[in-house]
Specification:
This protein has 9 helices and 10 strands. By secondary structure, it is α/β, with parallel strands linked by helices. The chain has one domain. It starts with a strand and ends in a 7-residue tail after the last strand.
Length: 252
C-alpha cells in the first residue's frame, strides 16, 4: 500500500523510526512546529496539501494525518480523492503517549500541565509546552476563535479556568525508549530546572504512530474519513472527533 503522510514536524524522529520498519510505502510531508497556534492558517494549509495530493499522478490508498485536533485546526478538514485517517487524539501529547487512556490519566485533571518530549523539544523556539501549545477544548486557538466557537462568556471562562486555576510545579517528560536522546532530555531537564519545575518522567509509546502507518486502523483509535466528508471535533475523551458529509452544516 502507498500512503501520503501529512504531519507536524514534532513527530519527525518518531515517524522516521516507524517508516523504516513499516511494510508500506510512506511519502511524508512535515509542517513546522507551532502552526497549531494559528489554527485557521494551519487548517487552510493542510486542506491545500490534501487537495494537492488528489492532483498528483501517484495514486494513494489513503492520506494519513500526523496530528490530533490541535487547537481545533484539524476540525473542518475535508477528505478529497482519498480517505483521511487520523488518530483519535486531542493533540500530539496523545501521540507521544500512545493512547487516549494515558492522556486522560495524566492530563484530565490539568489540561494545561507543562510537558516535553524529545521530538517536541528538539525544534522550534520552545523546549517545553506552554499555555499556547497545551490544548484541550480548543485552547490552542486565538481568542476570536474561542469566542466564535463557545461564545464570549464561555471563552473567558475557559481561559480563566484552564490557564489560571490549573497551575503546576511539575513538568512531565514523556520518554519514548526507541527515540530517546540523552542530549535532548538533558536540555529538557535544564529548562525545567531553570523554570523551577520538578521533572516527572512518564513512559511514552509509538503505538499510535506505528498503527497509523501500518494501516491498523481500529475504530477505537483512528477516524477514517471517507472522500467528501469532513472532520468534526467532539472534544470528549472517547471519540474526540467524528466524520460527517461535507455538505452538512457542522454541528447540525
Amino acid at each position: 500500500m502507498i500512503f501520503k503522510l501529512l504531519s507536524c514536524d514534532v513527530l519527525v524522529r518518531e515517524v522516521s523510526y516507524c517508516i523504516a520498519r513499516c511494510p508500506h510505502t510512506i511519502r511524508p510531508v512535515f509542517t513546522p512546529k507551532g502552526e497549531h497556534n494559528k489554527p485557521t492558517q494551519l487548517r487552510a494549509n493542510l486542506q491545500s496539501q490534501i487537495d494537492a495530493v488528489a492532483a498528483e499522478e501517484q495514486n494513494y490508498d489513503a492520506v494519513l494525518l500526523g496530528y490530533g485536533l490541535c487547537g481545533n485546526a484539524i476540525s473542518g478538514l475535508i477528505a478529497n480523492k482519498y480517505p483521511l485517517v487520523i488518530p483519535r487524539a486531542h493533540d500530539c501529547t496523545t501521540l507521544f503517549l500512545g493512547s487516549r487512556q494515558d492522556f486522560k490519566c495524566h492530563f484530565a485533571d490539568n489540561p494545561s500541565q507543562t510537558w516535553a518530549a524529545v521530538g517536541y523539544s528538539e525544534g522550534g523556539d520552545t523546549v517545553m509546552s506552554d499555555n499556547s501549545t497545551r490544548d484541550f477544548l480548543g485552547l490552542g486557538q486565538d481568542y476570536a476563535a474561542l469566542v466564535e466557537q463557545y461564545g464570549e462568556e464561555n471563552a473567558k471562562y475557559l481561559i480563566e479556568t484552564m490557564l489560571t486555576e490549573h497551575g503546576s510545579d511539575s513538568m512531565y517528560l514523556i520518554d519514548i525508549p526507541e527515540t530517546t536522546v540523552p542530549e535532548i532530555t538533558d536540555r529538557i531537564r535544564k529548562a525545567a530546572a531553570d523554570a523551577q519545575l520538578k521533572v516527572v518522567e512518564i513512559a511514552g509509546s509509538l503505538r499510535l504512530i506505528q498503527g497509523l502507518l501500518a494501516g491498523s486502523w481500529s475504530p477505537e483509535d483512528y477516524l477514517v474519513v471517507p472522500p467528501g466528508h469532513r472532520i468534526t471535533g467532539i472534544y470528549d475523551y472517547e471519540e474526540v472527533m467524528t466524520a460527517q458529509p461535507a455538505e452538512e452544516r457542522v454541528g447540525g
